[in-house]
Amino acid sequence: MKKLLFIAVVFVGAFTAQAQKTKFGVKAGVDFASIKFEVAGVSGTASETGFFVGGFATLGISEKFAVQPELLYVAISDSNFFSVPVLARYTFAEKFSALAGPSFNYFSDAEEDKLKMNLDLGATYDITEEIDVNVKYSLGFGDVAVNGIFIGAGYKF
Fold this sequence. Notes:
Layout: H1 2-18, E1 22-39, E2 42-60, E3 65-76, E4 79-91, E5 96-107, E6 115-126, E7 131-140, E8 144-156
Antiparallel strand pairs: 1-2, 1-8, 2-3, 3-4, 4-5, 5-6, 6-7, 7-8
């Protein structure tokens, strides 16, 4: 048990020592979603426009690479849910970054299958040190899939 605790402390210490920067922020924007479903042989689609709002942290691993977990509230007509994307962020130009990773979505108003997973791909442009604009496509999986384009802005503290 002591060895396991020691290894965990060394790992966290090494991660913290190499971290370039950690920044926290808020973001909000509009989403254009399509909901596809197939239940008991019946399938259909619906398109809706909604909004999202939430917070994020950018955990710098190196000068060009970071991990960006987010917590978002997403409202799309009758489907409100909480989304937790865990995105890899790679800075490929001075103000441009690419984002990719899974997002875990909890549908609070669903009767079953409340937890869904999506794949998110996107990009961010830093207007200033504090303000950015971002766009992301979220690809859903399963019998009920929510796909969407999220366009927003963020503010880093």
